[in-house]
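To fix ideas at the outset, we first show an illustrative case, written as a sequence plus integers encoding its fold:
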Amino acid sequence: MSTAAPVSLVTGGNRGIGRETARQLAGLGHTVLLSARRPEDAERAVAELAPGVPGTLLPRRLDVTDADDVRALARRVDEEFGRLDVLVNNAAVNYDTARRAVSVDLDEVRQTLETNLFGAWRTAQAFLPLLRRSSHPRVVNVSSESGSLELMSGGTPAYGVSKAALNALTRKLADELRAERILVNAVCPGWIATDMGGPGGDPVDQGAAAVVWAATLPDSGPTGGFFRKGEPLAW
């Protein structure tokens, strides 16, 4: 399959901000690979979203903690499209509000880092050859104010440290890829009323819109930044 439409991959796309990001990108005419650890979850989300968007939504299985799985999907995307235009590293776990850094089980922290940091890292590495074939490549790391060193406080130790590390990865990738015109940014969607965020937050479409903004930046747009609602956020 080949397409003139932008090809976008959204990890953790079956619910919450990932699902809405996939919907909004497809609403802009993108061909969106909506991925989830369980293929049936991806298929269900696509079945529910596809009738309402002009773009194409395709379900894909992807466990970002499994290196073989990530490489297999990269090979499939290469065979189907020959490139990737947008990578949205959205998959994340364990908003551990009940934990404290002084006492948290470090095995839990390692498991959180495996998805929230290393999952995004290995996915970026695996898809970088395909991004290099794009005319307008973009990488968006979905982060959180919990990862801001300036604003950081106690609590949510595994999640907060994982997002701070994801922000650091964003800066590293952006600097290394700047000369290749690959824009890499971190986005904090804000407090959003999702399964992870809980009730009381902003609507999910607002959080996803911030991600879509970074995914569709012009070539003159920023790289290596940390943003919320399109405005810089303190590192």
User: Anything to note?
Assistant: The radius of gyration is 16 Å.
